[in-house]
Amino acid sequence: METLALTALMNAAVPGATRVSRHPSKAPADDGCLCALARRLESLTPLAEQDRAALEALRGFVRSVPRNTVLMEQEGVADHALVVLAGFASRYKRRVSGRRQIVGYLVPGDFCDRGALHAYPLDHAIETLTDCRIAKVPRVAYLDLLGRHPRIALALQHARLAEEATTREWVVNLGMRSGLERTAHLLCELMERLESIGHASDGRYDLPLTQVDLADALGLSSVHVNRVLQALRRDGLISLQGRCLQILAPRQLQQLAEFEGGYL
């Protein structure tokens, strides 16, 4: 079955497998948490009705997970795939001193399947940053899903390529952009990612991250992040009230960050 799954992952000749718009219409409120996964995959590859039904069947693996829960330990080998369906999680590495570097955010529709596919040790840890809804799909069920549904397998392959490209953008962020530019770039990126699953519209989205969470992704101190956010607000580029972020001047913010969303 693993051979079938890997063959499906590499097979780009799936009928109707053309790239579609990253910005489908906003999801209805009653679509349920699995909608985020379906919308994410359909933004990469068109799915058939039987594919959507197969994703819906994952509902039995979904559970609620509180914030600050470690989902996978670094160097651990998972026997399952993880799918984030609601909330924010992070991929991170931690130094002996305890300092944390977030190397990626996981938003609804994102997944980690390295252990399920290859049984390789994970070179980083995964932890929830907020209360989340997580699907923990056993390896056998996950490989069966990929083997039976090549469109889903292809969409997941495209998602991996986007994740790799995002990692490269984060390296550029840390190495070549100022604190102001880094923050602007991250806010633009989150807008694109959340808009693709119907969780953002009109420049507005929920940002439930603390300033420490932002700082550990941006390579800044939380004090510096606070100053940068104040500067962006003072310049009329964003507003931030509680957890609600509004990008007031998207073109100017993108120009400041030199943001091009094609890698997503």
UniProtKB/TrEMBL annotation:
<dbReference type="InterPro" id="IPR000595">
    <property type="entry name" value="cNMP-bd_dom"/>
</dbReference>
<dbReference type="InterPro" id="IPR012318">
    <property type="entry name" value="HTH_CRP"/>
</dbReference>
<dbReference type="GO" id="GO:0003700">
    <property type="term" value="F:DNA-binding transcription factor activity"/>
</dbReference>
<dbReference type="Pfam" id="PF00027">
    <property type="entry name" value="cNMP_binding"/>
</dbReference>
<dbReference type="InterPro" id="IPR018490">
    <property type="entry name" value="cNMP-bd_dom_sf"/>
</dbReference>
<dbReference type="InterPro" id="IPR036388">
    <property type="entry name" value="WH-like_DNA-bd_sf"/>
</dbReference>
<dbReference type="InterPro" id="IPR050397">
    <property type="entry name" value="Env_Response_Regulators"/>
</dbReference>
<dbReference type="InterPro" id="IPR036390">
    <property type="entry name" value="WH_DNA-bd_sf"/>
</dbReference>
<dbReference type="Pfam" id="PF13545">
    <property type="entry name" value="HTH_Crp_2"/>
</dbReference>
<dbReference type="GO" id="GO:0005829">
    <property type="term" value="C:cytosol"/>
</dbReference>
<dbReference type="InterPro" id="IPR014710">
    <property type="entry name" value="RmlC-like_jellyroll"/>
</dbReference>
<feature type="domain" description="HTH crp-type">
    <location>
        <begin position="177"/>
        <end position="251"/>
    </location>
</feature>
<protein>
    <submittedName>
        <fullName>Crp/Fnr family transcriptional regulator</fullName>
    </submittedName>
</protein>
<keyword id="KW-0804">Transcription</keyword>
<keyword id="KW-0238">DNA-binding</keyword>
<dbReference type="GO" id="GO:0003677">
    <property type="term" value="F:DNA binding"/>
</dbReference>
<keyword id="KW-0805">Transcription regulation</keyword>
